[in-house]
Amino acid sequence: MGSLIPPIVKFFSSRGSFIYIGLQLGGIVTLFFGISLIVGCTVTISRIALPLLATPGTPYFFLLWITCSVLSFTTLFNYVAAASFNSPCVDAEETMRLAIEGNLLSPQKRHRLLDEPSRYCNSCRRYKAPREHHCRVCNRCVAKMDHHCPWINNCVDAENHRYFFLLIVYLFFSTGIAFFLLLMAYVRLWWHGETKGSIYGPCGYRLRSFPLYLTFALCGTIFACMIFFIVWSGLHILKNETQIERVIVGNKERLLRNSMVPFRNPYDLGRWRNLLTLLETNDDPVLNQAKKGGTMMKVALLLWLALPTLRSSSCDGVHYPTFDDEVMLPV
């Protein structure tokens, strides 16, 4: 029996083990299940609920229809984009050069780094770039890896992080609006009691159909979950750190708590710059002109950056602006 232990351990630790293959296959199932949920809820709301909540042809109905269409499209767009885009290809020679340069730094400067300067990945057989980590499910090193999300069957990384964050933001608004519209409709039905059959016309019974009850429950559950995810992700984004880096930063802060110079995340550029770093894309025609404006200009810029786009992220997966580089630049 003892002779079987090494092969078993080797099998489970190998990158081709059935555990990670199962996670990959399960990710495909959850991805299509998530898309089906969005499409199903959209069809149910638009075909059953909207004609009952507003009279077709009225401005209110048109407003609800436009809102439903826009939120459904943007949610699906960001869902597919987050699942499709991967982190940028990293040049092995460049990571080796950075590792050599990092090893030549003085101990004082090395303590200011978030990662060790020379981290070698035995699976990919190359040095890792700064902020890069190996994902066993994807079986590759991922630039600025946040976590592996089974709902998109992909890692949240330097390229698709903006799409993932916008996905949960649009899910928050779309499910929240649908949930409260249906909630008000059900409250009216309950309040009027015996006359509930005449409130929404002869087709009012559809509000008590199983598809709408299921949609109401799903939207309420997803809306509650998105509140947590937006707060959780937003706290990391405003500090320009991933979930993996939050652990690293916390450990270094505890180690250097009593030192003369406390540890600071070198990639934390301030909340506004951190948010722009996540959302900005290459060749953006508006970003450079608008990011130095006042409060109203910043709000308009955020609305612009939240629009669907196929422009690639401005991050190359290797080089990241640091606090030492940006601190003297005007915000």
What Rg, in angstroms, do the CA atoms define? 24 Å
Strand content: 5-15%
The chain-level structural class is mainly alpha
Strand order in space, largest sheet = 1-2
The dominant shape is: elongated
Distance between the termini: 65 Å
What is the mean pLDDT? Answer: 85
Largest sheet: 2 strands, antiparallel
Model regions low in confidence, pLDDT < 50 over at least 5 residues: 1-5, 8-15
Count of spatially separate domains: 3
SSE order, one letter for each helix or strand: HHHHHEEEEEEHHHHHHHH
User: Which percent bin holds the helix content?
Assistant: 55-70%
Count of helix runs: 13
- Total strands: 6
The quaternary structure here is single chain
Topology of this structure?
Blueprint lengths: L4 H9 L4 H36 L5 H26 L7 H12 L3 H5 L8 E2 L4 E2 L4 E4 L4 E4 L3 E3 L4 E3 L4 H32 L3 H4 L10 H29 L4 H13 L15 H9 L7 H4 L4 H11 L17 H4 L5
Antiparallel strand pairs: 1-2, 3-4, 5-6
Helix pairs in contact: 2-3, 2-8, 3-6, 6-8
Main location: membrane
Keywords: Acyltransferase, Membrane, Transferase, Transmembrane, Transmembrane helix
Catalytic activity: L-cysteinyl-[protein] + hexadecanoyl-CoA = S-hexadecanoyl-L-cysteinyl-[protein] + CoA
